Amino acid sequence: MPLPKFAYLAPKSLSETCALLAQHGPNARLLAGGTDLLLKLSRAGQSPRFLVGLRNVPGLDYVRFDATTGLSIGALGLLSTVCEHDDVRRRYPALAEAAQATATVQIRNMGTVAGNLCNASPSADTATPLLVYGAEVVLHGPAGDRKLPLDQFFLGPGQTALGPGELLREVRVPVPAARTGSDYQRISERSQVDIAAVCASGLVTLDAEGRCIHARLALGAVAPTPRRVDDAERALVGAVIDEAAIARAAALAKAASRPISDARAGAAWRKQMVEVLAARAIRAALRSSGGRP
Ligand SMILES: Cc1cc2nc3c(=O)[nH]c(=O)nc-3n(C[C@H](O)[C@H](O)[C@H](O)COP(=O)(O)OP(=O)(O)OC[C@H]3O[C@@H](n4cnc5c(N)ncnc54)[C@H](O)[C@@H]3O)c2cc1C
After folding, report:
1. How many whole angstroms separate alpha carbon 106 and alpha carbon 109?
2. Does residue 118 line the site of ligand 1, with CB under 6 A?
3. What's this model's pTM, rounded to 2 decimal places?
4. Are residues 34 and 117 in the same domain?
5. pLDDT value at residue 189
6. Does the CB atom of residue 139 touch ligand 1 within 6 A?
7. CA of 124 to the centre of ligand 1 (A)
8. Is residue 242 part of a domain?
9. Shared domain check, 233 and 209
10. What is the dihedral of CA 29, 32, 34, 35, to 10 degrees?
11. Helices (H), the chain
């Protein structure tokens, strides 16, 4: 399908980018890797008059780890950089796994983590690991920077908390505490190059006696946005996690999910898979934290 006509604008600074986005409002769209946006333009007949490319804005293409401040991913930080980054693989394995599971090598070499989040698909692979690691996003607009916890960023399918003239400048992820384990699980009809029908990330932190002192569980593709399951997280904290606790938390996750039926899967099957993947994610997170089982 041919692309509709548009003007390509190539700002050279963040302030120029925000000014263009503010000036053209709904007639303009920001372009990062283009792997989502260009497909949508050709498929859905969406036709913004202006695409504002980020490529010429310096200082946005980075994935950095600092032992005090944690992981920072710039607006042009690629999925492929994230999944190959030594510190990400070692300290944020659920994020590395999720980035690795996204699309194909060619798309990961073009697509950004920021684009994956801003696209606001309920099934976005990097969303649930970033939720369990407690990520925040730095949004930059005409008034400068503002920070937002990632769990307040997603408002609905394709909808985010980005305001007029704003872009996502950086994703920040704190350093996980000692004795923390995490894991990412996904299931799709095809084993490769398929959007997740259900995905889940789990994270647990144990104290020196092996009791769980912090837990996070997030689900994707089973609600209008990727989301954490507070009830399930609470059910894991305060005791040594055993199989009964895992089953309780997974059942709570299933109860909290609100999947729809679509071309990828039926709602009832998705609900069942939430329970399975949530249990697997918690179990694997527990194992990598050094705890049982
Ligand atoms: C064949 C194929 C397979 C795919 N498989 C998967 C998959 O398995 N899992 C998955 O999660 N995704 C998948 N995707 C979707 C896509 O590749 C990812 O979402 C990718 O991370 C998007 O990043 P991008 O830089 O290309 O974003 P773009 O296409 O450039 O932008 C996506 C959206 O985000 C906005 N945007 C981008 N960057 C910013 C920013 N910094 N600030 C504000 N708004 C911004 C754009 O305006 C646009 O609305 C697939 C796509 C294709 C074509």
Report:
1. 5
2. yes
3. 0.97
4. no
5. 81
6. no
7. 9
8. yes
9. yes
10. -130
11. 14-24, 37-44, 79-84, 86-91, 93-101, 105-108, 113-118, 127-132, 230-236, 243-256, 267-289
> Are residue 45 and residue 92 in the same domain, yes or no?
no
Residue 2: inside a domain? no
Q: Is 236 in the pocket of ligand 1 (CB under 6 A)?
A: no
Q: How far is the CA of 35 from the centre of ligand 1 (A)?
A: 5
Q: 220 is in which domain, residue-wise?
A: 198-289
Distance 157 CA to ligand 1 centre (A): 13
If asked whether residues 135 and 205 sit together in one domain, one would say no
| 8 Å CB contact between 87 and 42 | no
pLDDT confidence of residue 190: 77
Nearest residue to 289 (alpha-carbon basis) of 197, 215, 189, 223? 215
285 C-alpha to ligand 1 centroid (Å): 27
Q: Does residue 46 share a domain with residue 72?
A: no
- Number of folded domains that form the chain: 3
CATH number at residue 11: 3.30.43.10
Residue in the block written with tokens 């959007």: 195
Distance from the alpha carbon of residue 16 to the mean position of ligand 1, in angstroms: 22
> For ligand 1, is residue 161 a contact (CB within 6 Å)?
no
Q: Decide whether any atom of ligand 1 lies within 6 Å of the 31 Cβ.
A: yes
Same domain, 35 and 108: no
The string of pLDDT tens digits covering residues 150-186 is 999 999 999 999 999 999 999 999 999 999 999 999 9
Give the Cα separation of 256 and 31 in Å (integer). 34
Task: Check whether residue 278 and residue 250 sit in a common domain.
Answer: yes
